[in-house]
Amino acid sequence: MNYSLAVSATDGTCNTAPSQPVVLSTVPCKLQNVSAQLNCDTNSAVVSWELSDNVTRHTVQAIGSDGHRIDCTSSDHSCTLAGMRCGQSYNITVTALDGACDNSNTNLMLTSAPCAPSNVQTSLHCNISGGVVSVSWVQANGAEFYMAVAVSNDGHSYSCNTTTASCDLQELQCGQIYNVSVYSLAHGCGGVKSTMSQVQTAPCPPQNVSAIVQCDSESVLVSWNPAVDASLFIVELESESTGAISSCNSTNTQCSITHLPCGERFNLSVVALRGGCQSQPSSDLSIASAPCIPQGVNGTVDCVTNSAWVSWDVVNAAESYTVLAVGEDGHNSTCSSSNSTCNVPDLGCGRSFTFHVTASNAACVSPPSSSFQLETAPCALSSIVVVAECHSSVIMVQWQKARSGNSLYFATAEDQDLSILSCNSSASSCNLTNVHCDKEYTIIVAASANKCSSLRSPPYKIRTGTIINIMPFPSRIDV
């Protein structure tokens, strides 16, 4: 405030005229509404106050906790403290000056922006699913908490927060290069960024894995799409029944596993490696090796239909079975089945066949089983010739032998006294002995093979000493 002072004398009765007035200013009042606003980006502070009478200028002095000093002067209502050091608590004194009394001070405290974290380190945990990177740093002055941020080349970002000097970035994408920064954070400041550290995550699992079972070489060729961030690939083949594992490795996009046992199903997977880091396995692929050779193969002939029932022991990894019957005359017949029996049709009569069984799946056919032979039922005879001579005790019976097979033929003669004569042969004739002259014999011929018998020929009557030529039958024979 300003005061005008004048002096007059008095003797108790009279007063003199006042002297010339003198103006006197009081000490400036204490500054009001003093505040400081921190600019975190520039680490400077704007100090402001309300203007008061008779104050010609103001000085601002800031002293940090490390002794650092900054000053500014203003004749207005604010001034800027520039060049503050990070992470410091500053004691700020504002002084109002009027040219006479320069001791009106106001004090306040202000903390500068936090320092940036230093020595940022990254460590990739290759053995943890999802891609985890541990980030560590040296703690910074003035920081109340920290945020680590990883940004990939394609823009994906992940972060973690902590009040300590490390944290883990979770579930980073595979096969990416990330730029990692750490921010120091304090209330009132958005964050001060460290220098960047770069980390590359584990390779991605191989894609489009395919497998071709090579039946002849008992191997499987595995291939996959190339991966630009992998230096080695490992293929593992695990048996579903035994758990045994076979493997191969490659620096390109395919490799082969050999010596596959027959009749096994396998789960196949591929992993990619780079340095000490391994990808997650590719999606499981199920494959089967070639079926084993069928065992326990046997068969029986159906005498009525001239077909054959063939059976065998079921083998692992087989999806279907095929029976092939090969005839001596070149006639072949087949049947297929998904279980352990099959009926081979249309074999015809009087034929010998060699049978074997093969097992197959989507990839392979097994070698043929051990073979066995069967004969179908004999064909009916189309004609016979009977020769009986006088003064001979022998009747020769002849027939047309089937072109294939090993049928046994039986000739039987019965006279009026019901006496029986017989002979048999696998050839085309046999002799009935002990024949009496001037007897009437009824003769029939039948064939038998593989537990099957043909229908008997119709009976024929002959008197000894008479020659009977070819006699047709109504039935037809396939030979």
UniProtKB/TrEMBL annotation:
The keyword Nucleotide-binding does not apply. InterPro entries: FN3_dom (IPR003961), FN3_sf (IPR036116), Ig-like_dom (IPR007110), Ig-like_fold (IPR013783). Residues 205-292, 293-379 form the Fibronectin type-III domain. The keyword DNA damage does not apply. CDD domains: FN3. Residues 118-170 form the Ig-like domain. Keywords: Immunoglobulin domain. This is Fibronectin type III domain containing 7, related sequence 4. It comes from Sinocyclocheilus grahami (Dianchi golden-line fish).
